[in-house]
Amino acid sequence: MNNPFREILLFFLLLFLQVFMFNNILLFNSINPYLYIVFVFLYPLKENKIPLLFYSFLLGLSVDFFSDTGGIHAFSITIIAYIRLFFVKIYFNKLEIDYPFFSLKTESFGKIFNYVVTLTVIHHFIFFSLANFSFHNFTNVLSNTFFSSIFTLVLYFIGSAIFTKNE
Amino acid sequence: MQQLIFFIQRFKYFLFFLLLESIAFSLILTNLNFQKSKFVNSTNSIVGGIYTQKSKITAYFNLKTENEVLAAENARLRNELQKKVFATQFKDSTIVDTVRYFQKFSFTKGKIINNNYNKEFNFLTLDIGKNQGIEKEMAVINSLGIIGIIDNTSPKYARVQSILNKNSKINARLRNSNYFGTLDWNGDDYKTVQLIDIPRQAPLKIGDTIETGGKSTIFPEGILVGTVLKINRGNSAENRVIIKLFNDMSSLGTVYVIKNFDKLEIKTIENLENE
After folding, report:
1. CA B87/CA B81 separation, integer angstroms
2. Residue B142 belongs to what domain range?
3. Which residues in chain B are closer than 8 Å to A68, comparing Cβ atoms?
4. What share of chain A in percent tops pLDDT 90?
């Protein structure tokens, strides 16, 4: 993933998948996966955080444009883009020297699972809290976070199982 | 000065992060406010254009139901017309000169190209805009009942604040009576809305029809809303009645946008009184 074209391709692929497919799934009339956050997991690790923050913000804002949600997607994806390196340090024990050689493919499933689950749940929780924008239906926020996170994670792990080459 | 530069150097990621988050947060706040002009919405030409292309493809799947709904509406309108003929036949010879009475409402046809109904603050996108004479605060209905209010326009597209939006407050009444209330949505179920502030003495029964009250300059009188599903006879201060909508908000096609010609006149006279 050192080729910038692949990142641009990933950006538009995730945007259009999210807007035209995942926003229309509505399982049991309310549950949607938010798979565009995979951009944050797959973007290569770099010491300079600014490009990732900027592109994530732009991706979130584009999803907002299509789904009329103000800046909720942009807000929540920028948070997980910012705290990503912190969790990389905790779960994978990687320091700044290891960043160029880091790849999710070479890590064990347990570590990847912890990392992806943490970031997804944080993102979904912030997203649904802002979408609700009051403390009134807080149980709804929690149940939405729970079910949507499961949906997103199942899709992510199925997707990564399909698209990784077995060598 | 040097310390300031050092500070920026040291916290540049955090400062950049804060900048992006504050932009996002201010966008969220302006989006929640009906009065302010909005920047992030689906009425701009790029997003609207993409949605138009999408709806060109998906519209074919709904053609059959759309035809049936239109035929049903035609039948209903023909019946109304027959009633009118009947009524005028039995009147005495007073001639009402229709030229002297101005048209009060005009209807413009439009198509929903993007539909949301699963969030707390739902918006729809229409394929008509300022070029077709669509302005802010016009009513949007279809043959089955109310849908929402125009809240933002661009030259070719318009955004509708759906009745399934926590900010929507629409005047409604019990059919053929003068008991008024306000339509509200609690964000739970897209098939129902709530009617609040309706007087306790109102003779409500389950299955009664609720329609718009005509107390605002947006909706004409008598547009259908839904039927009473559940009456809350508790001791709470607000008398909450659950209304089942006639419209299936999850599948909307062609809609009508209503323009009120007297709006300016009514607003002017209301403002005069305040001064």
Report:
1. 10
2. 45-262
3. 31, 41-42, 114, 116, 122-123, 125, 159
4. 21
Residue B69 lies in a domain: yes
Residues A30, A146 contacting (CB under 8 angstroms) = no
Calpha distance A34→A116 (Å, rounded) = 13
> Could you tell me which residue, B61 or A148, shows the higher pLDDT?
A148
CATH number at residue B244: 2.40.10.340
pLDDT band at B37 (very low <50, low <70, confident <90, very high): low
Number of domains in chain B: 1
Instruction: Identify whether B137 is part of a domain.
Output: yes
| B23 falls within a domain | no
Q: Does A60 touch chain B (CB under 8 A)?
A: yes
Is B252 inside any structural domain? yes
Q: Given CB atoms, is A64 within the 8 Å cutoff of chain B?
A: yes
Q: What is the DSSP letter of A133?
A: -
pLDDT tens-digit readout, B79-92: 777 776 656 555 55
* C-alpha neighbours within 13 Å on the C-beta side of residue B274: 6
Handedness of CA B252, B220, B215, B232 (dihedral sign): negative
CA-based R_g, chain A, Å: 16
A49 and chain B in contact, CB less than 8 A: yes
